[in-house]
Amino acid sequence: MTLDLDRRTIEEAYARWAPVYDAVVGPICASGRRAAATAARSVGGRILEIGVGTGLSFADYRGTAEITGIDMSAPMLDKARRRLASGRFPWVKALHQMDAHALEFPAAAFDCVVAQFVITLVENPEGVLDECARVVRPGGEVVLVNHLYSERGAAAAVERWFARRTRSMGLRPEFPFSRLTHWAEAHPEMELIERRPLPPFGVYTLIRFRRTAARPASA
Predict the structure, then answer these.
(1) Which of 12 and 83 is assigned the larger pLDDT?
(2) Boundaries of each Methyltransferase type domain copy (predicted)?
(3) Does 173 sit behind a cis peptide bond, omega within 30 degrees of 0 on the bond before it?
(4) How many distinct helices (H) and strands (E) make up the chain?
(5) Does residue 157 fall inside a structural domain?
C-alpha cells in the first residue's frame, strides 16, 4: 500500500491537469459525477461540493439545489469561475478556494456534502470526512464517488503497481473501502446507507452516509 498523497503533490498535479482536465478526465468521470449529483438532488437544499474542480458538475444539478463549491487548486477554480460567469448555472451560489481539511463553514451548515473523486486524493482522508460530518446537518447526507481498491487478486496487484507510478499525477487507485467503514465505526452518528457500484463495469462506487444525530459531546 502507498501512503496518502501530500498536499504539495496534489497542488502541483492539478495545476498541470487544469488546462486539459475537462477534455481528458471529464468523459471518464461523467457517470460518477451524475450519480453523485442525482443523490445530492434527492436530498436538496444547501449542497457543498468538495473538490469542485473546473465546475464540470454544475449542469448535473440542474437548478434543483443551492450549490457552494470549494477546491484548493487555484488553476482549477479559475476555470470553474469562467464557467460560472456564463450565467447558465444560477443555482451555483459561491466558489471558494479552501482546504477540505479545515472547512470555513459553521457546523450543520449544509443539507448535503458531495465529494466526487476526492476522498482518495487528500492528505488525510479521515480528517476530511470529519469535516464533512461536522458541516452536514442531522438528517443530511455525505455523498462520495470514487474508485475503490479491489484488495484481492490480480486487480489489486495491478492497482498497487499503478499507484507507485502515478502519485506525481495526483492519482491514487489503491484506497480500500475498509478505511471508510473504520471511520464510520468511530462516528456512530454517521450511518452508511448505500454502497453501489456504478456502470459501466463498476469501476466507480457511490457511497452515501446519513447523519442521524448530533455527534455525542464526549466523542
Answers:
(1) 83
(2) 48-143
(3) no
(4) 8, 7
(5) yes
CA distance 200 to 46: 30
28, 98, 5, 188 alpha-carbon torsion, rounded to 10°: -90
C-alpha cell at 219: 466523542
Q: How far apart are the first and last CA of the chain?
A: 30
Q: How many domains does the chain have?
A: 1
| Predicted pLDDT at 131 | 98
Q: What is the domain-level CATH number for residue 19?
A: 3.40.50.150
Quick one: residue 201, left, alpha or beta (phi over 0 = left, psi -120 to 50 = alpha)? left
Tally the C-alpha atoms within 13 A of residue 123's C-alpha that lie toward its C-beta.
11
Check: pTM over 0.85? Answer yes or no: no
Q: Which domain holds residue 101?
A: 7-211
Specify the pLDDT at position 168.
45
In a domain, 2, yes or no: no
Do the domain assignments include residue 53? yes
- Asked whether residue 218 is domain-assigned, the answer is no
Taking CA atoms, 202 is separated from 23, 143, 196, in Å, by 22, 17, 8
pLDDT, tens only, 195-213? 999 987 677 899 999 999 7
